[in-house]
Amino acid sequence: MNDADRLQRARDELRVLRDKLALERDELRLQLHLARAELREEFESVERKWDNFEARALAVAKSAGEGSREVASAAGLLGEELREAYRRIREAMKG
């Protein structure tokens, strides 16, 4: 094999490598975009829960009596759900 053939072979190998890397890069970009979209959707869902949580917390702050304990308990459970959802979103953003 002469120098011209070796050079052409190196060029061909490099082009194949570049094509494979470009495909992998494009796939990763798509996955990242989709992951971000999924995270946005999850966050929007959590935002609706946040609104519900705030309303319940406000109701507890304004009321007294037996009913407010039930509302407070429900708000506490919802608060735990929110904490876990925020943790999942934060972890997904790191990973």
Counted by DSSP, the helix tally is: 2
What is the helical fraction, as a range of percent?
over 70%
Molecular shape: rod-shaped
Mean pLDDT: 85
Total individual domains:
1
Class inferred from helices and paired strands: mainly alpha
> Biggest sheet, open or closed, and with what strands and sense?
none
> What is the gyration radius calculated from CA atoms?
27 Å
N-to-C order of helices and strands: HH
Distance between the termini: 48 Å
The parts where pLDDT drops under 50 for at least 5 residues are none
Oligomer: single chain
**Total beta strand runs:** 0
Proportion of residues in extended strands: under 5%
Provide the descriptors you would attach to this structure in a database record:
2 helices; mainly alpha; 95 residues; 94% helix
Give a written overview of the molecule.
This protein has 95 residues and is an all-alpha fold. It has helices at 3-62, 66-94. The protein has one domain (3-94). It starts with a helix and ends with a helix.
SSE order and pairing:
Layout: H1 3-62, H2 66-94
Helix pairs in contact: 1-2
Gist of the model:
This protein is mainly alpha-helical and 95 residues long. The chain has helices at residues 3-62, 66-94.
